[in-house]
């Protein structure tokens, strides 16, 4: 709904989805790390997800 209403680009959409996935995962397990969120939700490494848009580099 937010993506469509605000007409986000691909990078903005990706970061919004990552935030939503992280929030839902942390609600289930408050001790979850970023690495665990990425592995559970995307099945990839944090290095790969950081490379999508040069995040954290």
How would you describe the overall organization of this protein?
This protein is mainly α and 57 residues long. The chain is 68% helix and 0% strand. It has 4 helices and no strands. The protein has helices at residues 2-6, 10-28, 34-42, 46-51. α2 packs across α3 (34-42). The radius of gyration is 12 Å and the shape is flat. The mean pLDDT is 93.
Q: Strand share of the residues?
A: under 5%
Beta strands, count:
0
Cα gyration radius (Å)? 12 Å
Mean pLDDT: 93
Which class do the helix and strand fractions yield?
Answer: mainly alpha
Question: Ranges with pLDDT <50 over ≥5 residues?
Answer: none
* Helicity, as a percent range: 55-70%
**Discrete helix count:** 4
Major sheet, described briefly?
A: none
* Overall shape: flat
How would you describe this structure in keywords?
57 residues; mainly alpha; single chain
Write the layout of secondary structure elements.
Layout: H1 2-6, H2 10-28, H3 34-42, H4 46-51
The gist of it:
With 57 residues, the protein is mostly helical. It contains four helices and no strands.
């Amino acid at each position: 709904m937010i993506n469509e209403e605000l007409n986000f680009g691909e990078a903005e959409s990706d970061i919004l989805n990552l935030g939503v996935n992280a929030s839902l995962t942390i609600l289930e397990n408050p001790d979850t790390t970023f690495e665990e969120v990425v592995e559970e939700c995307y099945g990839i490494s944090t290095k790969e997800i950081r490379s999508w848009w040069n995040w954290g580099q």
